[in-house]
Amino acid sequence: MISSNITEVMSGLSVKLTALAENEYKNILRTVATSMNGVISERIHEQGLDANGAKIGNYDTKPIYVNPNKATRKFQTQGKDGKTKFISTGLPHKTKYFAGGYNEFKTQVGKNIGSVNLNLSGQMNNQFTVIATQNGYGLGWQDSNIFERARFFETKKYNKTIWGVTEKEGEIINEIVNNAVSDAIS
User: Fold this and answer.
1) Which of 33, 127, 133, 141 has its Cβ near the most Cβ atoms within 10 Å?
2) What does the alpha-carbon distance between residue 149 and residue 136 come to, in Å, rounded to a whole number?
3) Residue ranges of the domains in the chain?
């Protein structure tokens, strides 16, 4: 006669899986969101990569004028000719001319990594956080203005998924979930 304890083992596993489904899944989602926050922020705001692992974009090189009073870092004003005052009136310039456009401006303030990284003031990156949702947890912004700015970048300016999960990040998420489930049922 063959004997087995499979019924008892499966019954115990069933109890643990039911408890996991009822109690632990939100904790697992919070762990995933917390773990991925830094990973996704680094990819976007330090590496300048979208959810497909490609560059978000390049900064415009069309000449612009920028008011140093509205910039994250101060710089001296000057016109196209490099002078700090108008020749005709002797009055000081209120802006600085950047012949290389926004790309040159980002370099001047020390925030240019060679491609778009959506990081000038740090506000979007610093406020990207874990957010409780009706079904668990996710990542995003409490500030609706920053959320709308992020949506603008994805849907209008760059027309690509930026804050989505890359294939590699998906693998990290799967590993986190697998470990959490394994811990919860063991």
Assistant:
1) 33
2) 24
3) 24-57+117-186, 59-114
